[in-house]
Write a structure and sequence with these properties.
heterodimer; A: 142 residues; alpha+beta; elongated; B: alpha+beta; globular
């Protein structure tokens, strides 16, 4: 599934506008939410915006990229608002959740600032995480 | 078209809807893989109205299942794609090994070996250690 626009000429500008729309969705998403309900909320907002359509016109974003964008904007939102994330270590990796992962027995509270400063974020673009509260994965070694 | 031009063309595809990574440049062929995102080739065919034709299934090395397709490319002619889907606990990986000519079973095993040492597969096994 693609998010599409009528005129390909405005692709760059409207991709930026789409990111802004997702950013605003994060501000307005009903609480409590997880990344799955956040993505659904973003899709609802995109459907309400007449500049965007689905599989009808020039493609600007794939659905998997929407999930990436929503996770990136959520991470940025957490960073700016100085909110906590919840970290579950797995070998040499740190799985970063927001909000708290209910299915985990033990998750450590961290700030996104310290994670970004001390660890290396793995680039997993285009990947649909099966755990919808998982927003990023960092490695312990830089 | 020269092999060099074909390589440029394949690299250009990376700016389109799928990421393409060259595995090996040979005298008369190019081995590469394309990451097809969250979907398999059938879904990609449907989404992008691509001309894929299914042709054969293969079981290669350590029981990896590969589905064979021919992609009727306008600029590269027939491109052979061998789809591989890997299930992980964190995410699933869908890739297609690509070749500009039909591969023998031995050549396909070699292409798969090259993919299994690629950064993409290493990252997948790091994040999904049970694979």
């Amino acid at each position: 599934m693609f998010i599409t626009i009528k005129n390909e000429e405005y692709a760059e500008e409207l991709t930026g506008q789409l990111r802004l729309l997702i950013n605003r969705s994060i501000e307005n998403v009903p609480i409590p939410f997880n990344t799955e309900t956040l993505i659904q909320f973003c899709l609802l907002k995109i459907k309400q915006d007449k500049r965007f359509s689905f599989n009808d016109g020039a493609p600007i974003l794939r659905f998997s990229e929407l999930a990436d964008m929503a996770r990136e904007e959520l991470e940025w939102h957490i960073l700016i608002k100085k909110k906590s994330v919840f970290v579950v270590p797995q070998g040499d990796l740190l799985k970063v959740f927001h909000p708290y992962p209910m299915q985990c027995e033990r998750a450590f509270e961290f700030s996104m600032q310290s994670l970004r400063e001390n660890y290396n974020r793995l680039k997993l673009n285009g990947k649909i995480f099966k755990d919808f509260n998982l927003i990023a994965i960092f490695s312990l070694t830089n | 078209m020269e092999t060099k031009e074909k390589i440029q063309k394949i690299k250009f595809l990376a700016h389109e809807n799928v990421d393409v990574v060259i595995l090996e440049e040979q005298e008369d062929n190019i081995l590469f893989f394309a990451e097809t995102g969250y979907s398999d080739l059938e879904m990609l065919k449907y989404e992008n109205k691509l001309r894929f034709e299914k042709f054969e299934d293969y079981v290669v090395l350590n029981n990896y299942n590969l589905k064979g397709y021919i992609y009727k490319s306008k600029s590269l002619g027939d491109v052979y794609l061998y789809e591989l889907s890997l299930k992980g606990e964190v995410y699933d990986l869908h890739v297609a090994l690509g070749s500009l000519k039909k591969l023998t079973y031995k050549e396909l095993a070699q292409a798969l070996k090259l993919f299994l040492v690629s950064e993409e597969f290493t990252l997948f096994t790091t994040v999904n250690p049970s694979v």
